[in-house]
Amino acid sequence: MPKSKERCQEIREEMRNTILQKSLLYFARNGFAGTKISDLSKNIGIGQGTIYVYFESKEELFQEILKIADSNEILNKMKLLTAMPISAKKKLRMLSETVLNRLEEDETFAAMIALNTQILLEKNEAYSSEETTYQTKLYNYTSKIIEQGQKEKSMVDGSSMKLADYYWGVVYLYSLKRLFTSEYEMISVDDLERTVLKG
């Protein structure tokens, strides 16, 4: 019995989502420049042509992955967090707890953090910003929290963007550990917060 039109569409959506999720992990581990569609398709367990049925090029696939990384729930939480009428120190604690818990529980989240950082590091015109390298929302929201903390005298002085860089640099390191090693000790919330908190 032939499949219904609706079931065929469901199958297409399932395959597209599988490609996106597995590609996210693969790009996070190998970077944009280090990813070949032929290797990626072997890693996913599908034919190379199947990827091209859903995405015209590696660049298009990567752009779709960036949309996933850019719209994840941590960004939504950070947006809400920056607007909350609480101290920056409390905001930082909530952010740090959320980030470290997600890193421990979710390999995809670790991949999103790694990928977001790679965007800052790699210089490929196909997807890099022409503006400052600090255009990721993660850095911008963190910078706002740090600026508030500096006004409240709870966070160290200096460029809020550089401090956001230090903070997310530590998170990036532990994201890589999560992706590449089977045994590692997760950093504590207190240790992570030392990157920006006073004394």
Description:
There is one protein chain. The chain has helices spanning 5-30, 37-44, 48-54, 58-70, 73-83, 88-105, 107-121, 137-151, 160-180, 189-193. It is mostly helical and 199 residues long. It starts with a helix and ends in a 6-residue tail after the last helix. Mean pLDDT is 83; it is low at 123-134.
Topology, please?
Elements: H1 5-30, H2 37-44, H3 48-54, H4 58-70, H5 73-83, H6 88-105, H7 107-121, H8 137-151, H9 160-180, H10 189-193
In short:
With 199 residues, the chain is mainly alpha-helical. The protein is 70% helix and 0% strand.
Percentage of residues in DSSP E strands: under 5%
**Class from secondary-structure proportions:** mainly alpha
What kind of sheet is the major sheet?
Answer: none
- What does the average pLDDT come to? 83
The parts where pLDDT drops under 50 for at least 5 residues are 123-134
Order of helices and strands: HHHHHHHHHH
- What is the number of E strands? 0
Task: Label the overall shape.
Answer: elongated
**Count of individual helical segments:** 10
Q: Could you tell me the radius of gyration in angstroms?
A: 19 Å
* Helix content class: 55-70%
The end-to-end span amounts to 70 Å
